[in-house]
Amino acid sequence: PILTCHQERRSLSLSKLVFPVKFRHLSFYFWQSMPFKRFVETGRVAVVSDGPYKGKLVSIVDVIDQTRVLVDGPNSNVPRGQLRLNELHLTKFRIKFPFAASTRVVRKAWTDANIDEKWAQSVWAQKVVSKEKRAELSDLDRFKLRRARSRRNHIRTATFLTLRKTASRNGVLYGKKKMAKGGDKPKTTKKAKKEKPQAPKKK
């Protein structure tokens, strides 16, 4: 249909009012359902995975291009410099500081957020520590560890089998109580046999 100038102007104004609201709801929905929560951004804390500073924590200060970022690690003795993204593992921690802030500002934000304490309490850091300890074991220590694991698995299996046997008897495992042979079953009385009438003897 052909619209007049007034109607066309009104439809455009309505579309300006309606579409941003819809887009805002959709963007909020997609943000909530987004599977990835760790992004390359200013303030993101990362672990160096390669190079002379391997295993140390740094914070992203600026994004140079698609493959390089400017990082700074004031509390981990990592000087400010550029690193490739494939040399970093992003963590869930992020500190807030202005864009392209100085090392002094990054250090203050790092200390206020207690990044070192949070990292030490995380499962990731505990796994790294245990991996380093395992790498330092001698042959005798590895043998002792293997024997201890075997003994632990044996005790765990025996305990599991005992619990499963008890649960199956109590009816928890399969939902039906297992009856013992000749134990709890009610005794049924046998019916007396009816005597057949004897036929008269022939003379």
TrEMBL record:
Residues 188-203 have a biased composition (Basic residues). GO terms for cellular component: cytosolic large ribosomal subunit. One of its GO terms (biological process) is ribosomal large subunit biogenesis. Keywords: Ribonucleoprotein, Ribosomal protein. The keyword Cell cycle does not apply. SUPFAM superfamilies: Translation proteins SH3-like domain. InterPro entries: KOW, Rib_uL2_dom2, Ribosomal_eL14, Ribosomal_eL14_dom, Translation_prot_SH3-like_sf. Residues 79-153 form the Large ribosomal subunit protein eL14 domain. Residues 174-203 are annotated as: Disordered. One of its GO terms (molecular function) is structural constituent of ribosome. Gene3D superfamilies: 2.30.30.30, 6.10.250.2270. The keyword Cell inner membrane does not apply. It comes from the Eukaryota. Residues 43-72 form the KOW domain. Signal peptide: none annotated. Belongs to the eukaryotic ribosomal protein eL14 family. This is Large ribosomal subunit protein eL14.
